[in-house]
Design a protein that fits this description.
single chain, about 90 residues, mainly alpha, transmembrane, membrane, transmembrane helix
Length: about 90
């Protein structure tokens, strides 16, 4: 019962998060796949873990994929923000 309730709660939050990410990327003029990989990987961790919970395949493969998605997402965070001007007072 708790698994189904969690999945039902997850779906609208997941869709709202995708919508927010797309809006922010458009507002900042960020393009390219490298900058999109961080949110894709982080959202994939959530989807993977919900599916693992629902279909009872919580195990080494699920954990390994979660860690891999987190590492890939963390690596590509360096492409997230657009570059700022050097004249803004960076030391």
């Amino acid at each position: 019962m708790f698994d189904i309730l969690l999945a039902i709660l997850f779906i609208p939050i997941f869709l709202w998060t995708i919508r927010v990410v797309i809006r922010k990327r458009k507002a900042h003029g960020v393009t390219g796949i490298k900058s999109a990989l961080t949110p894709i990987c982080f959202l994939s961790v959530g989807v993977l873990n919900i599916l693992a919970l629902l279909f009872d395949f919580i195990g080494l493969i699920s954990w390994g994929l979660s860690v891999a998605f987190l590492l890939i997402g963390a690596y590509f965070t360096k492409y997230q923000m657009p570059e700022e001007d050097e004249a803004e007072g960076h030391y």
